[in-house]
Amino acid sequence: MNILRPKGRAVPSSGTSLNRQWQASIGEHVIAMAWSPDGALLAAAAVGGPISLFDAAGGLRHTLPGHTLGTAALSWHPSGQRLASIGQDGQVRVWDVASGEQTQALRLAGSWGERVAYSPDGRLLAGAAGKSLRLWDESGALLHDWTDHASTIADIGWKPDSSAIAAVAYGGTTLWVPGQAEPLRRYEWKGSSLVLAWSPDMVFFATGDQDSAVHFWYVENGHDLQMWGYETKMRELAWDPTSRYLATGGGRDVVVWNCYGTKNGPEGSKPVMLGLHEAYVSGLAYQHRQASTNAPALLASIGQDGLLVLWRPSKGQRPLAQFGFNTPLCQLGWSPDDQHLAVAGEDGSVSVFQVG
């Protein structure tokens, strides 16, 4: 299904506020950022390697050395006591956040690590490098080295119930189950996917693709839908907590699909177009839960124009609040209680806002 950009621009309204609580700098481009599960700490990784741990008030707790040649991604253990990182030194490193000490160094199959992810139940840790997806238990014992991928793995994502993990690469998505040497299923497609996101209800997963499209996959039967017509590569995907809406970037507008709008999912439906950014959208994030049926989850967007915007797409196309920066923005994330929003810039700035 093709999409078209609207001709007009939305006018900001004043229903919701963004109040900056603190700002800090880690000195260079923020390549990854993540809240701890209890919201007590915010981890921000510099592209050159070091990882800064800030407390909720903006105090710097630790600066972890990270990875020589550069850190690529972060993942918190559900307990909030450990942080995993992956980087260009061929290692997954696990850090004790109370002491700031490294507790494990897990060797990857390749020297260029891209993605790391704890399972939602915290029992397993996955790391991707090249065509290899490795899986370790909590003690650091290697359980699997799955190498049956057609090309370099671009992204990985645990199924929300921790029963399987998906890996995307050129040629499609492969679904792996811990304890099994062979893949559970392959979702084949002759193209290159860049990112993957599971719907919270596990009915769908979506991939953002190299050819400026978004792919919807039905997990059980492998049926797929493709929506195209975006301005650039699709790297921004965000599901709302009900699994009804998927927000996508891929250009200057935020495009929101209603995945339960028809009996065929998003197929045949018209997306909501949210227009305000004057440069490409660089990040999207829905709140983790909605307050009530009458108060759907907020959606945050950031762009290369330095603009942070809050939306409630199910209630209209007007932005609720916005805040401008003097640098392109590259990372954002809601705190676990959905009351605060962290935003990072290409200049190394890290800001936390209270949403009112």
Structure description:
This protein has 356 residues and is mainly beta. It is 0% helix and 49% strand. It has strands at 18-25, 30-35, 41-46, 51-55, 60-64, 71-76, 82-87, 91-96, 101-107, 113-118, 124-129, 132-137, 142-146, 155-158, 165-169, 172-176, 185-188, 193-198, 204-209, 213-218, 224-228, 237-239, 245-248, 253-258, 272-275, 281-286, 299-303, 307-311, 321-324, 329-334, 340-345, 349-355. The strands form 8 sheets. It has a 4-stranded antiparallel sheet, with no helix packed on it. Strands 2-3-4-5 form a 4-stranded antiparallel sheet, with no helix packed on it. A 4-stranded antiparallel sheet has the order 6-7-8-9, with no helix packed on it. Strand 31 and strand 32 (349-355) form a beta hairpin. Mean pLDDT is 93; it is low at 1-14.
